[in-house]
Design goal:
With 413 residues, the protein is mainly beta. The radius of gyration is 22 Å and the shape is globular. The chain has a single domain, classed as Neuraminidase (6 Propeller). It comes from Membranihabitans marinus.
């Protein structure tokens, strides 16, 4: 689908110093007033509950799909409980499964065979109680796990060996390494940190906080003035990202994406979607009560997760549902930043009617495929007796891997 879009020239605003910050650079302290690069889209569901079913072949080369079954050992090591994220590290697969009883992060080889747990549940060195975030630091070749149970971050190398852990001085829902200097950007998004900030020369909490390599705050971007009873929605989806060697972030309540370039903020893209309502831009700092429920109950939607490369983007949008028994409906936006084409879908269906794909992960580092996803197969009982080669393959994989996930490696058309 081609879009009707309007380009609003991005004006780089003069940087403003943040008062009260120790050792802070000249940096723009707000992003709400940055001129937008606005894109107009139309969302037109074809079924109930915002349903849009699209052929998998509309986006990907279906004949070129490679399936990888994530197989546990005979003893049951590597059985997954509720995986929430998948990462490709070299030829191996890292699965983040925080509800797993043994370990939150599990390694599978290129053929899908389980071979290692990353850390373990516990209180010792290299152990954690309840992880809330898993990040891949490709520059330093580290796996970084945040343990919300002890408020610390643990570092492992790409072989799964424990390096160290450090305590965290504040709370956040996403983080990313600064590509230009030691330290991180944190997506904090609530006022729970206000009491801590004075220890670092800051008066309040911020939507974004820049820290040093030990997560000690240095300065903030967009001061939070939300009500004291605000309850942040910590879905831990990706809100920070790397884009052309810069740090990017999303105001996921208004669906506006920004870049931090040379300590100034620019609009990357601002989606105005006819058929989906988002909160006003300043809601991100002015909210009260339960953000998640208040947004959906008022008929607004927000972005729950994001995957982006230099020329493509996928958003997982939690759309307020018309069904009173459902809080939201999952809708995905696939957008091509080069040719401005886009597709909305609730599910991508394969031609053999064996499985669907919801969210996929862009993988620009690979030369052999463009993205990967966990497929969602139909029940084995529905597939038995089918003559479709794809159905027979998926059925055999599910029996072999004891219903562990199957990953599809995908190539764009």
């Amino acid at each position: 689908m081609n879009i009707n879009y309007k380009d609003i020239v991005v004006i780089v605003m003069t940087a403003i110093s943040i008062s009260g910050c120790k050792n802070s650079p000249e940096v723009l302290d707000t992003f709400l007033n940055v001129p937008e690069y606005q894109i107009d889209l139309e969302f037109e569901p074809t079924g109930e509950n915002n349903e849009i079913k699209v052929s998998l072949d509309h986006i990907f080369k279906e004949d070129d799909i490679e399936y990888i079954s994530l197989k546990p050992t005979a003893e049951g090591d590597g059985l997954l409980r509720m995986p929430v994220a998948f990462y490709s590290i070299g030829q191996n697969w890292l699965v983040y499964d925080p509800r797993n009883k043994k370990s939150s992060a599990l390694f599978f080889d290129k053929d899908g065979n389980f071979f290692k747990y990353i850390g373990a549940k516990g209180n010792g060195p290299g152990e954690y109680i309840a992880t809330s975030l898993c990040k891949i630091n490709r520059e330093q070749k580290r796996i970084e796990l945040v343990d919300g149970g002890t408020n610390k971050i643990l570092f492992f190398d790409f072989n799964g060996q424990f390096i160290k852990s450090i305590p965290l001085p504040l709370l956040f829902s996403d983080f990313i390494r600064d590509p230009y200097e030691e330290g991180y950007y944190l997506y904090t998004l609530d006022n729970f940190n206000t009491g801590y900030m004075k220890d670092y020369g800051l008066e309040n909490d911020y939507v974004l906080t820049k820290t040093d390599s030990t997560f000690r705050p240095q300065f903030g971007i967009e001061e939070i003035i939300s009500h004291s009873d605000v309850i942040p929605y910590r879905n831990n989806g990706n809100k920070l990202f790397h884009y052309e060697n810069e740090i990017g972030f999303i105001n996921n309540y208004s669906n506006d994406l920004y870049l931090i370039k040379h300590n100034k903020i620019e609009s990357l893209i601002s989606f105005n979607i006819e058929g989906i309502n988002f909160q006003p831009k300043d809601y991100i700092k002015n909210a009260d009560g339960n953000r998640f429920l208040a947004t959906l109950e008022k008929g607004y939607s927000f972005v729950g997760d994001l995957s982006i490369s230099e020329n493509k983007l996928l958003e997982y949008i939690m759309v307020s549902s018309p069904d009173p028994n459902r809080r939201y409906d999952p809708v995905f936006l696939y957008y091509d930043l080069d040719n401005k084409n886009y597709t909305f879908y609730s599910a991508l269906e394969d031609s053999s009617d064996t499985y669907t794909i919801g969210e996929f992960y862009l993988h620009p580092l690979s030369s052999s495929y463009d993205a990967f996803a966990m497929i969602q197969p139909k029940d084995i009982e529905e597939m038995e007796g089918s003559s479709s080669p794809v159905r027979q393959k998926i059925e055999a994989m599910l029996k072999e891997n004891r219903n562990n996930p199957i990953i599809a490696r995908l190539k764009f058309k």
